[in-house]
């Protein structure tokens, strides 16, 4: 099943690497991303926009948020050339995409905590 | 093919990444691979952490606030100096400009996001291999530098010891000019000069095979023989035999010493030459401006065994002002950029163009420099002039005894017959004997000159029957000495007798020398009548004996010569 | 290979041919070319046809060969030397102890 929004294989690998820290990673990502989104909405300077988009792209791809990473990539490349109005549209799309994947990550976080608790019983 | 597995080494890795999630993820991955992790959230922090903790490897995000990855990388590389600290850039930059920037900034590799653990592990391993290679290279370089310093020091010590030996000679005499690089010794070049007791001068220009310490080590025993024998009054031939035998004995088979030896006699106005394997020397006749090449007729020293060694020399007349010029093969062998040799023709051109003899050295050096494009530091040149005997002041001999007691009343007689006359020079022994008498020491030069003159007259004119009038020109000179060697080789009868008698006279004493030979004698009266001419090449012997000794007289039809030396009480 | 050897049918003569510069770099090769031959050849020839240059270490190597071949009784020929090489042999007077053909 090829999910365009969230690559589940990546999540599996991440959990395998992070082990007990997996929930922390997910939390950190979500907090980071909120910050970045707020920056994107505020930033006027094209250079800054480009950098923030680049950064967001990086962490999204690490976390398996495929479409989010793609959108950030687009914004990164267009930040210095497209008119403000186009960029605003793109930022709104990013906002929406994050809103979509956010509950998925939160669910993932819950699942892993439950798993840990369940396992611990034995 | 089995690859050599390098053992796993845990590294300290610095992760500089501004995104907290990415930083957390990467740290965990790297820690899981067995390494210790340090983190930084921006470029400035990264540099500071590096400065304080000195991690061995850096994973650097390219774009970071405060100071970006490129700037941080440059600063970290600067701090690391010659140690290799691999920097792996974390980037999603795929544009070539971005990649180029990474390289410029000193990045060693890239890791793309999303992070792939397997690739990361492989890259860390590869970078670590490079890091360790660099560390080994530096370590070996330092080791080599240390050893090199030891060697330099050893050479310095060897040079210091050798300089002591070399400077017991008379290279600073007024009639010698020379050019020698400070590293000459370590190119195997050797230049020695010393006075004989009679005031003649022996000069040696030598060139050992090889370079460095092995060449220098051979030079020391050679110098000892040269100085020792010259000081005792031995001639060139005996000194050569001894030097050759010594080198043959102590040097490995493939080492030898090319050498030119000169004996310059200010009294007799001649130069005796032996050249074994060196380039041509030149005898410059100032009056005719002709240069006679002194070509190598012999093998270098240390090649032939004592019984096959050829010690025959050539003798040439010299006038006051004439010069002998010797050079090492560094001159002829100088190459230019096209590997063309400077060669003998160019040297001759410099000779021809030379107007002032004093400037010859500079002109040759300049010609070499112009030819090669730069100066050469391993060229040796020496020029020995014949000055008037009165201008030469040989140093006084140093004696090794305490000077307290000495024999004062004795006589001794020797008879040297054919076999001894052929191969044996008794003069050094006779002189050593006489120098036991302290009162005679101040006149050792005159004593030796007189003894040598009487002995050579007795041998050459008496026993061998040679006519000194043959020595009236250069060609005659050569023929005279050839004839001398031939007749000496063929000698089977005849003798030279030497009688020495020392008696005290009051506070001082008197030495009587009598030399007799078995020859036909000569017309004493006629020789005494001849006016003393300073320009003639020969026949000055009688005058010499008369001037240096006292009460010189000849009897028995010239076959017996007698002369006395006196000394007063010593202070 | 810049040092080539050839042994005669009956093993009595060894010919060593030198190509290029005959200097210290050839030291090991040169020695190995004659050192371990059994039986030891009676006579030796060093063919210098393709030798461009000879320095003092080459002269030393020839002395080593001479020593190996019996010293004063050695039978060694140096053949086909070009003008430059001949000159070096002449100055050093090596033709007095080697047969220069």
Structure in a nutshell:
Chain A is mainly alpha-helical and 122 residues long. Chain A has one domain (8-116).
The gross shape of chain A turns out to be elongated
Largest sheet of chain A: none
Q: How many distinct domains of chain B?
A: 3
Straight-line distance between termini of chain B: 92 Å
How much is the radius of gyration of chain B in Å?
39 Å
- Derived from helix and strand composition plus strand pairing, the structural class of chain A reads mainly alpha
Order of helices and strands of chain A: HHHHH
Largest interface: A-B, 23 and 19 residues
Number of domains of chain A: 1
Q: Tell me the total number of β-strands of chain A.
A: 0
The strands making up the biggest β-sheet of chain B line up spatially as: 2-1-3-4-5
Q: What do the pLDDT scores of chain B average to?
A: 85
- Got a strand count of chain B? 20
Number of helices of chain B: 16
Range of strand content of chain B = 15-25%
- Please state the second-level CATH architecture of the largest domain in chain B: 4-Layer Sandwich
Please tell me how large the radius of gyration of chain A is: 16 Å
The outline of chain B comes out as elongated
Describe the overall structure.
The complex is a heterotrimer of chains A (122), B (571) and C (101). Chain A is an all-alpha fold. Chain A is built from five helices and no strands. Chain A has one domain. The mean pLDDT of chain A is 88. With 571 residues, chain B is an alpha+beta fold. Chain B has 16 helices and 20 strands. Chain B has helices at residues 20-32, 43-53, 69-80, 96-104, 117-166, 212-232, 236-250, 329-332, 343-353, 360-372, 418-423, 427-434, 444-463, 474-490, 524-529, 541-548, and strands at 12-16, 36-40, 57-61, 87-91, 109-112, 176-179, 189-195, 201-208, 257-265, 270-276, 281-285, 290-294, 314-317, 323-327, 381-385, 410-417, 495-505, 508-517, 550-555, 560-567. In chain B, a hairpin with a 2-residue loop joins strand 17 (495-505) and strand 18 (508-517). In chain B, helix 2 packs parallel to helix 3 (69-80), helix 6 packs antiparallel against helix 7 (236-250) and helix 13 runs antiparallel to helix 16 (541-548). The longest helix of chain B is centred in the N-terminal third of the chain and has 50 residues, at 117-166. Chain B is elongated and about 125 Å long. Chain B starts with 11 loop residues before the first strand and ends with a strand. Chain C has a five-stranded mixed sheet with strand order 1-2-3-4-5. In chain C, helix 1 runs parallel beside helix 2 (56-68). The mean pLDDT of chain C is 90. Chains in contact: A-B, B-C. Chains A and B meet through helix 1, helix 2 and helix 3 of A and helix 1 of B.
């Amino acid at each position: 099943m090829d999910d365009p929004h969230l690559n589940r294989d990546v999540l599996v690998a991440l959990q395998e690497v992070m082990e007990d820290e997996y929930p922390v990673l997910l939390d950190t990502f979500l907090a980071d991303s909120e910050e970045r989104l707020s920056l994107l909405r505020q930033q006027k300077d094209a250079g800054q926009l480009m950098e923030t988009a680049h950064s967001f792209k990086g962490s999204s791809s690490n976390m398996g948020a495929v479409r989010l990473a793609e959108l950030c990539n687009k914004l990164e490349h267009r930040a210095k050339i497209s008119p403000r109005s186009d960029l605003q549209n793109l930022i709104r799309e990013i906002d929406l995409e994050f809103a979509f994947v956010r509950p998925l990550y939160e669910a993932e976080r819950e699942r892993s905590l439950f798993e840990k608790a369940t396992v611990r019983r034995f | 093919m089995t690859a050599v597995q390098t053992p796993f080494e845990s590294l300290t890795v610095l992760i500089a990444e501004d995104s907290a999630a990415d930083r957390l993820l990467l740290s965990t991955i790297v820690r899981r691979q067995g390494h210790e992790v340090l983190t930084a959230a921006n470029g400035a922090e990264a540099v500071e952490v590096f400065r304080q903790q000195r991690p061995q490897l850096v994973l650097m995000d390219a774009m970071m606030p405060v100071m970006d990855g490129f700037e941080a990388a440059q600063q970290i590389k600067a701090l690391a100096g010659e140690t290799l600290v691999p920097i792996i850039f974390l980037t999603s930059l795929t544009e070539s400009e971005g990649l180029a920037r990474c390289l410029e900034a000193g990045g060693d590799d890239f890791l793309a996001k999303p992070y792939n653990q397997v690739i990361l592990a492989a890259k860390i391993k590869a970078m670590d291999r490079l890091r360790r290679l660099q560390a080994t290279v530096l370590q070996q370089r330092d080791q080599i530098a240390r050893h090199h310093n030891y060697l330099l020091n050893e050479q310095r010590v060897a040079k210091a010891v050798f300089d002591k030996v070399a400077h017991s000679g008379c290279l600073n005499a007024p009639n010698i000019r020379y050019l020698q690089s400070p590293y000459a010794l370590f190119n195997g070049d050797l230049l020695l000069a010393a006075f004989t007791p009679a005031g003649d001068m022996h000069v040696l220009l030598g060139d050992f095979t090889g370079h460095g310490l092995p060449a220098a080590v051979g030079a020391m025993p050679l110098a000892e023989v040269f100085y020792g024998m010259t000081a005792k009054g031995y001639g060139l031939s005996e000194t050569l035999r001894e030097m050759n035998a010594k080198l043959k004995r102590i040097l490995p088979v493939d080492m030898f010493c090319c050498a030119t030896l000169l004996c310059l006699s200010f009294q007799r106005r001649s130069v005796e030459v032996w050249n074994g394997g060196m380039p041509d020397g030149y005898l410059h006749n100032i009056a005719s401006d002709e240069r006679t090449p002194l070509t190598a007729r012999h093998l270098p020293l240390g090649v032939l065994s004592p019984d096959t060694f050829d010690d025959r020399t050539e003798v040439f007349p010299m006038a006051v002002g004439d010069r002998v010029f010797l050079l090492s093969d560094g001159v002829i062998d100088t190459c230019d950029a096209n590997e063309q040799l400077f060669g003998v023709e160019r040297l001759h051109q410099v000779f021809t163009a030379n107007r002032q003899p004093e400037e010859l050295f500079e002109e040759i050096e300049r010609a070499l420099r112009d030819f090669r494009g730069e100066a050469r530091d391993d060229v040796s040149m020496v020029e020995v002039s014949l000055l008037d005997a009165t201008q030469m002041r040989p140093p006084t001999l140093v004696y090794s005894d305490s000077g307290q007691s000495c024999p004062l009343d004795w006589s001794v007689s020797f008879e040297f017959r054919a076999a001894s006359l052929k191969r044996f020079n008794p003069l050094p022994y006779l002189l050593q004997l006489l120098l036991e008498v302290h009162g005679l020491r101040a006149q050792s030069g005159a004593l030796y000159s007189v003894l040598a003159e009487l002995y050579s007259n007795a041998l050459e004119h008496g026993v061998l029957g040679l006519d000194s009038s043959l020595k009236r020109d250069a060609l005659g000179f050569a023929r005279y000495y050839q004839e001398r060697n031939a007749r000496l080789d063929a000698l089977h009868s005849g003798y030279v007798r030497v009688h020495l008698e020392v008696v005290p006279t009051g506070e001082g004493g008197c030495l009587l020398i009598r030399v007799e030979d078995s020859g036909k004698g000569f017309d004493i009266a006629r020789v005494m009548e001849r006016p003393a001419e300073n320009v003639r090449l020969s026949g000055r012997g009688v005058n010499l004996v008369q001037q240096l000794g006292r009460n010189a007289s000849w009897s028995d039809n010239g076959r017996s010569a007698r002369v006395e030396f006196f000394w007063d009480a010593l202070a | 290979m810049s040092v080539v050897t050839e042994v005669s049918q009956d093993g009595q003569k060894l010919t060593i041919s030198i190509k290029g510069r005959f200097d210290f770099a050839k030291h090991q090769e040169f020695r190995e070319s004659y050192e371990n031959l059994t039986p030891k050849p009676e006579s030796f020839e060093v063919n210098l046809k393709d030798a461009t240059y000879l320095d003092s270490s080459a002269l030393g190597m020839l002395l080593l060969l001479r020593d190996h071949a019996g010293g004063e009784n050695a039978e060694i020929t140096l053949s086909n030397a070009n003008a430059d090489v001949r000159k070096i042999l002449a100055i050093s007077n090596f033709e007095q102890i080697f047969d220069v053909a």
